[in-house]
Amino acid sequence: MVVTPLEIGILIIEAFQFIFPAYCANALPVIFGGGRPLDFGKTFFDKKRILGNNKTLRGFILGLTIGTAIGLVWHVLFAYPISYSFLLPLGALLGDLAGSFLKRRLDIKPGGLMPIVDQVDFVIGAILLSLPLNILSWELALTAIIITPPIHLLTNFGAYKLGLKKNPW
């Protein structure tokens, strides 16, 4: 089967549209985070922090709230199920937390670079939580995963240049 450039372009737009509330939920803690760490400074049984200081209650709550609000707008505009509005941002945040948990186990400091995981953990979390909704094809999911690393790197570099992040990744 031959796929045309137009079909690829449409798939990219649909993937971006689908995953956008997750992007917002993932980005907002960078801008509005800070405060009390989500892990309350606790360590895991390996004596390493569970998540680290960069994952905060305020960032999680604001990311979930704004991501859900955007998901509700998407529900109205694009007829996604209403549960999509909450599940996609929640999945993005949980995926990001899973990435942070993994990085702490591997002795990568908060803010330290872990290529690929840093760029797709939140998208994989969002996709996994959206699976029960049965609205996502494998092509759309794969496209969302493929388009995310360059978008993630570009937006993080922009946040770094604006002084919102300490490092460009």
- First-residue to last-residue Cα separation: 37 Å
User: What is the beta-strand fraction?
Assistant: under 5%
Q: How would you classify the quaternary structure? A: single chain
Spans of at least 5 consecutive residues with low confidence: none
Total count of domains: 1
General description of the model:
By secondary structure, the chain is mainly alpha-helical. The chain has one domain. It has 5 helices and no strands. The chain has helices at residues 5-32, 57-78, 82-105, 117-130, 138-161. α1 (5-32) packs across α5, α2 runs antiparallel to α3 (82-105) and α3 packs antiparallel against α4 (117-130). It is globular, with a radius of gyration of 16 Å. The model has no long low-confidence stretch (mean pLDDT 95).
Put the structure in a nutshell.
With 169 residues, the chain is an all-alpha fold. It has helices at residues 5-32, 57-78, 82-105, 117-130, 138-161. The relative contact order is 0.15.
Summarize the topology:
Blueprint: H1 5-32, H2 57-78, H3 82-105, H4 117-130, H5 138-161
Helix pairs in contact: 1-2, 1-3, 1-4, 1-5, 2-3, 3-4, 4-5
